[in-house]
Write a structure and sequence with these properties.
Chains: A alpha/beta (256), B mainly alpha (268), C mainly alpha (274)
Helix content of chain C: over 70%
Number of strands of chain A: 10
Largest sheet of chain C: none
Number of strands of chain C: 0
Strand order of the largest sheet of chain A: 6-7-8-3-9-10
Distance between the termini of chain C: 16 Å
Number of domains of chain C: 2
Radius of gyration of chain C: 24 Å
Helix content of chain A: 25-40%
CATH topology of the largest domain in chain C: MetI-like fold
Radius of gyration of chain A: 18 Å
Order of helices and strands of chain A: EEEHEEEHHHEHEHEEHH
Number of helices of chain A: 8
Oligomer: heterotrimer
Largest interface: B-C, 61 and 57 residues
Largest sheet of chain A: 6 strands, mixed
CATH class of the largest domain in chain C: Mainly Alpha
Structural class of chain A: alpha/beta
Shape of chain C: flat
Order of helices and strands of chain C: HHHHHHHHHHH
Number of helices of chain C: 11
Distance between the termini of chain A: 37 Å
């Protein structure tokens, strides 16, 4: 039934320095299915970003292996879209240009993909701002552009490293809705790193709980709530129970 | 020489760079020997080193002269520049009248007046002092004014809320906040003071490293000239590091931060 | 500032006229000071009978300028030639070399290290050597300007091309684009601000480099002219020449700023917003 897409087997990351070695990520195993929205949830410094970077091929694993669609990850993956927390867009292009940068860098046909870029930007409400430069727009609008850039070339996998972390609470809520909609429209596999418990519950099919120092996957919580997860769902008892359960796990680690 | 600090940090952090630097010198030496480049065109590092040692007593003597000129001029610039900056920064009237004026004056290459001072004061130390002063005064002044006038609003509001008198606010908030920028100006001036002294010696001097460079190159002794230039660089760096040490004492919290590359653009 | 709010309000109500009026209003104090200063200068010279060779009156400088304008223009052109040609060569050599260096890691290490070390030596210190090597000709002055301008342009260029944020680097890697594409579409535009820091810094020092070279070994140009004038205690002429020198330096600087506005239109407007 489930279509395995990404597999982490015994993956760990150790940093060597003059003062000794630091285990950022202890050996972890993880399966991510195609089309899933999965969150890596944990406190700051627990290694979740490191795991994401290893999946992206931007960081080597010290031990273990990662396979995406049966192929081993040994170098930076290119069949992905990637979104960061800060400094995502370039300031010398307008937002349409920023989304098209993805297309141009890959030497894809600009004409073919421009329609797709406009479509994506319109779906997040940015169709009136195509010629605006990033610094003219709010943080929320910039991140929406970043999502579009990560999707325009139709990658099967989108990796996001705390993309909403730099935004204020209200903008974050709006963007979560946009993100869920994008995911539902495109059916891609989303791997989402966050430290916000209710955000993880709201967005994900599965929440991967990561305990800190060194990063270990301690639990996987399947979130069985109806989609779209609108205001009513978020007020429901089930939602609160998920948040409560996950919170107690983290309280057990002493991070809350 | 605006980004001295940035460049230094990059160099210090890279021991492999030292290796490549050595490689560069080896290539230089090898190239000269291989192509038999005459000394008066481009001297080899070995030749430069030899001449440096051979002429060391004279180099040292002239270093003292140039150092005196540079350091003296620098001190006078600072002694005048910083108090004046205080006055300008804290008088709204002066800030609106004098300040734009000093900025405009900064555009004028005051060093162009150097021959004038040689004509007036002859070949002694005085004209060099003045030339160094001309070069260093405005950058120190302008950076100090910038430092004193860029107190963050939040810090100012906090100070006001404590009800402290202006002198206390100055001592405990304004002055420490301004110090990093003041030192930006001082460090720039320290590096360029030696340049000013050198130029002064070229226009009219009979001693000093600048004078010596001119004499040596006039005699086609390029290896000696290079050696002197190396010493000049050391002198400039020495003065710079004196200021850095001073900065470390007065601004211990800031030195670890990279100083801004865009700090304050200054002109000769 | 309250006047700012009033200004905005006025601007909305009365448009352009108000805008100009407010601009003059903002500038009136320093402008007035400038005028006042010149008047005071003139008055003091006359009142105190300050001798010509100490400090001339503005009117005297102006007169001298008018009398010797042909000669002054000639020397200005000489220095302008040395400055602009030397600067241009520094740009034409410096920027491609820094791009070249940005492509090779080994070159980066050797070249950058060497350039930074050489840059610590005050480049103007080589001026006497250039004069000996190339004589009293135009070439020696022009090459001094080149030498003085080359290093800031090169070092800032390399620094600009080397500094790519982690996020942009990761993004580039994720697209699978080759080095050339990454360079043209990301590294180059991202480096432009830093490149211009170098270009502007060099522009500021270019005219002074020419002047100093003329002092060491020249027989024409504003620097030479100033030396001759001050030797004769002709302060009026010297000041007139200094004014031309200032104008020349400003011209080069503003040309660079113009280029900056054309090449980085996004950056400029950003600065206005600041």
């Amino acid at each position: 039934m489930t279509d395995e897409f990404i597999r982490l087997a015994g993956v760990s990351k150790r940093y060597e320095s003059k003062k000794g070695s630091v285990d950022a990520v202890a050996p972890v195993d993880l399966c991510i299915n195609r089309g899933e929205f999965i969150s890596l949830l944990g406190p700051s410094g627990c290694g979740k970003s490191t795991m994401l970077m290893m999946i992206a091929g931007l960081l080597d694993c010290t031990e273990g292996s990662i396979h995406i669609d049966g192929e081993r990850v040994v170098k930076p993956q290119t069949n992905i879209g990637i979104v960061f927390q800060n400094l995502v867009l370039v300031d010398w292009r307008d937002i349409l240009g920023n989304v098209m940068l993805q297309v141009e860098m890959r030497k894809l046909n600009v004409k073919d993909f421009e329609a797709r870029a406009r479509e994506l930007l319109a779906s997040v409400g940015l169709d009136g701002f195509l010629r605006h430069h990033p610094y003219e727009l709010s943080g929320g609008m910039q991140q929406r552009t970043a999502f579009c850039r990560a999707l325009v070339h139709d990658p099967p996998l989108v990796l996001m490293d705390e993309p909403l972390g730099a935004l204020d609470a209200m903008t974050r809520e709006q963007l979560r809705k946009d993100l869920e909609k994008l995911w539902m429209d495109t059916g891609k596999t989303f791997v989402f790193v966050t430290h916000d418990i209710s955000e993880a519950v709201q967005l994900s099919d599965r929440v991967i709980i990561i305990s800190p120092r060194p990063g270990k996957i301690d639990a996987e919580i399947i979130v069985d709530l109806p989609r779209p997860r609108d205001f009513d769902v978020m007020q429901s008892d089930e939602f609160h129970r998920y948040v409560k359960d996950i919170s107690s796990i983290f309280m057990g680690y002493g991070v809350i | 020489m605006g980004n001295v600090d940035v460049k230094k940090k990059w160099l210090r952090g890279n021991r492999i760079t030292v290796f490549y630097l050595t490689l560069f010198f080896i290539l230089w030496e090898g190239g000269i020997r291989l192509f038999e480049v005459p000394m008066y065109l481009l001297p080899a590092p070995s030749g430069i080193a030899v001449k440096f040692v051979q002429n060391f007593p004279l180099i040292l003597k002239y270093t003292w002269v140039t150092g005196l000129e540079s350091f003296g001029g620098f001190l006078v610039s600072a002694a005048w520049g910083i108090p004046l900056s205080l006055i300008i920064a804290f008088s709204i009237f002066l800030r609106k009248t004098l300040y734009p004026f000093t900025v405009a004056l900064q555009l004028v290459p005051k060093i162009a007046l150097a021959p004038l001072f040689v004509t007036w004061f002859g070949f002694g130390l005085m004209p060099k002092f003045i030339i160094v002063f001309l070069l260093c005064f405005f950058p120190i002044l302008l950076n100090a004014i910038l430092g004193f006038t860029s107190l963050k609003k939040e810090h100012n509001d906090f100070a006001l809320s404590t009800g402290a008198d202006p002198l206390t606010v100055f001592r405990k908030v304004r002055l420490p906040a301004a110090l990093p920028q003041i030192f930006v100006g001082l460090k720039w001036a320290a590096v360029n003071a030696t340049v000013g002294a050198t130029i002064g010696e070229w226009i009219g001097g009979d001693a000093g490293l600048g004078y010596y460079i001119q004499m040596a190159s006039g005699d086609m002794k390029m290896d000696v000239a290079f050696a002197i230039i190396v010493m000049l660089a050391f002198l400039g760096l020495f003065l710079y590091y004196l200021v850095v040490v001073f900065e470390k004492m007065l601004v211990p919290w800031h030195v670890s931060q990279r100083s801004s590359v865009n700090g304050m653009m200054t002109m000769k | 500032m309250a006047s700012g709010a009033v200004a905005n309000h006025l601007m909305k109500k009365h448009g352009i006229a108000a805008k100009v009026g407010i601009w003059i209003g903002e500038a009136y104090l320093p402008l007035l000071t400038g005028v006042f200063f010149f008047v005071l200068w003139e008055a003091l010279i006359r009142l105190l009978n300050v001798p010509r060779y100490i400090l001339p009156a503005p009117s005297a400088v102006f007169l001298e300028f008018a009398q010797h304008s042909r000669l002054i223009w000639y020397h200005t052109l000489v220095t302008a030639n040395e400055t602009f040609v030397g600067y241009a060569i520094a740009v034409v050599l410096g920027i491609p070399i820094s791009i070249f260096v940005a492509f090779s890691e080994t070159l980066q290490r050797t070249f950058y290290a060497a350039a930074v070390t050489l840059g610590m030596v005050p480049t103007i210190a080589f001026a006497p050597l250039f004069v000996v090597w190339f004589g009293f000709s135009f070439a020696s002055k022009m090459l001094v300007v080149f030498w003085v301008c080359f290093f800031p342009i090169l070092i800032n260029g390399i620094f600009g091309f080397l500094s790519l944020s982690d996020e942009l680097r990761h993004f580039s890697l994720s697209t699978g684009a080759d080095r050339v594409t990454t360079f043209w579409k990301i590294r180059l535009p991202a480096a432009l601000p830093q490149v211009f820091v170098g270009l502007k810094g060099a522009a500021i020092n270019a005219t002074v480099g020419a002047t100093i070279a003329e002092w060491i070994g020249g027989n024409a140009g504003l620097g030479y002219y100033i030396q001759v004038a001050t030797g004769d205690f002709n302060m009026r002429l010297a000041l007139a020449a200094i004014i031309m020198l200032t104008a020349l330096g400003l011209l080069l600087y503003f040309l660079v700023i113009l280029a900056e506005m054309k090449l980085m239109p996004w950056h400029e407007s950003q600065r206005e917003r600041g």
